[in-house]
């Protein structure tokens, strides 16, 4: 299964954040999946948008549920009207917290990333 396209590095370098918790790892892929589910309204549509199977998307959501100990999505069954998924409060908080940590880390790392990028171009 192809990976989602990577963002190209900025001229000053890029930072990719992964958070290791007792129950597992949360990184940009899982957060992007939650954001895409929120936008698309279903796990299957989000999987298609990100180039992954429904099973892979569901496995990532299940991993997040286990890490947090609470569901990150509320789902409604499929059928002729189609199913759907929305982020729970825990899911929304996870995305917000991750993005806030990511912004803070980027701000803190920016001067050193810029210096490293300058040395790499030299």
UniProtKB/TrEMBL annotation:
<dbReference type="InterPro" id="IPR036388">
    <property type="entry name" value="WH-like_DNA-bd_sf"/>
</dbReference>
<dbReference type="InterPro" id="IPR036390">
    <property type="entry name" value="WH_DNA-bd_sf"/>
</dbReference>
<dbReference type="InterPro" id="IPR051815">
    <property type="entry name" value="Molybdate_resp_trans_reg"/>
</dbReference>
<dbReference type="InterPro" id="IPR003725">
    <property type="entry name" value="ModE-bd_N"/>
</dbReference>
<feature type="domain" description="HTH lysR-type">
    <location>
        <begin position="32"/>
        <end position="92"/>
    </location>
</feature>
<protein>
    <submittedName>
        <fullName>LysR family transcriptional regulator</fullName>
    </submittedName>
</protein>
<dbReference type="GO" id="GO:0003700">
    <property type="term" value="F:DNA-binding transcription factor activity"/>
</dbReference>
<dbReference type="Pfam" id="PF00126">
    <property type="entry name" value="HTH_1"/>
</dbReference>
<dbReference type="InterPro" id="IPR000847">
    <property type="entry name" value="LysR_HTH_N"/>
</dbReference>
